[in-house]
Amino acid sequence: MTSAAATGGSSPARTLAFSTEGIPTANRVELWSIHNAKALIALDIRTLDDSPLAAAEINLHFPSIKLAQVRGSAQVIERNERYIRRHPMDVIGVFFALAGEAFFYYPGGFETLRPGQAVIYDADRPFMRGFHRGVEEMVLTIPREEYLALSGGRPLTKPVVVDFHDAGPSNRHMLALARLVREALATGSAGGAPPAAPLNARAVEASSIELLRLLVAGKGAGTAQGYLASARCFIDEHLADADLCPARVADAVGISERHLTRVFAEEGEPPSAYVLRRRLERARSLLAEGERTTPIAAVAARCGFSSQAYFARVFKARFGMTPLAARRGGADTLILPD
Fold this sequence. Notes:
By secondary structure, the chain is of the alpha+beta class. The protein has helices at residues 28-39, 81-86, 144-151, 172-188, 201-217, 224-237, 246-253, 257-265, 271-288, 296-302, 308-319, 323-327; strands spanning 2-6, 13-19, 44-47, 55-61, 66-72, 75-79, 91-99, 102-106, 109-113, 117-122, 127-131, 135-143, 160-163. The strands form two sheets. An eight-stranded antiparallel β-sheet has the order 1-2-4-5-12-7-10-13, with helices on both faces. It has a five-stranded antiparallel β-sheet with strand order 3-6-11-8-9. Helix 4 (172-188) packs antiparallel against helix 5 and helix 5 (201-217) packs across helix 6.
């Protein structure tokens, strides 16, 4: 197990990593269990057959929440009443399924979890989870006391399953939370290479908590930070839509357009300005990533611009060069026909 501090923001996040690679087969389950007990949730772990366990995990520890990216071969994990008494955790877990199916048994019920679904559950209530084709998921944990503050004091007595798949009828707030967790794990675990942007640990934790509040407290209980995170996720998901507008964003996240404007005003940027900035940033990224033969008009359309002339004008105003020059590496600012 290795650890480091992922700096950025005033509250750094601690990074840990574990892999069974190089560990003798006979010791893998034991060491995998020890890592999870220290870094995430104490679990009774068993393999489904005689095949050697293969598993890896990346963890980010914030002052309140913990995030994890988990991959592993087929296994069953359990916390029964006896195990819970010996290893109380006092946390609520959010488990985001990324690949494969998993079964989830709990007192009085059963769930089958598919990729694109997340389950919220109290880790100190008995459960058994099984991954017959292996596990690939992200996890967020939050202390039960903080969860109760978010939920208005309502305890979590049974699992809550919420969709977050990009292509499906997702819960917008859960999709935003899943993306935030994924991006934080990718940035905070850059493997020694400097990330494109440092992890702002304070912002990640605060936004995660406020998105969770939107999920568990119900309509009208959200804060500006939660709605802002959800709105930004929706905007980034729909940048290619020429009809993307503040009214559509507000409707998607469940607030009025006036409320949405106030939420963005607190960050000093109107919704329309944020949409334009993100479209231009995506266009610059596409051009820099090797869109050498795609016509500029097609790149513009992929970023939600219906007019190539307008796209070229606002692109140059923001970046000081034409889209064509950006595609050529910024060496030439002469406007040439495609």
